[in-house]
Known about the structure:
The chain is 42% helix and 21% strand. It is α+β, with helices and mostly antiparallel strands. It has one domain: Ribosomal Protein S5, domain 2, CATH 3.30.230.
Amino acid sequence: MEPADEFSYIDEAEWPADQERCSPAVMEGVLDGLISSFQEYWYINVKVTLKEIKYHPVDSSPRSFYKASRNAIEKLAFEHKNEKSIFKSHI
Length: 91
């Protein structure tokens, strides 16, 4: 996660399978994590890049990737909460 001119999500990970099902779930987790972490802001200027995943043929699912990405974003959001460069405005 890094400051940017506008929100963007980029998937650079190499998926062994299920990319068309799981990558959108990652983006949903990212968006939900940002919304829940920054409720007081109406626009977030941040670029989120998925660089690497761990995939397991039995345990990997869209839901598991959603949960992992949401947790990761919430952790990163907490770490970057004081960086005003990623916020556009207060509500």
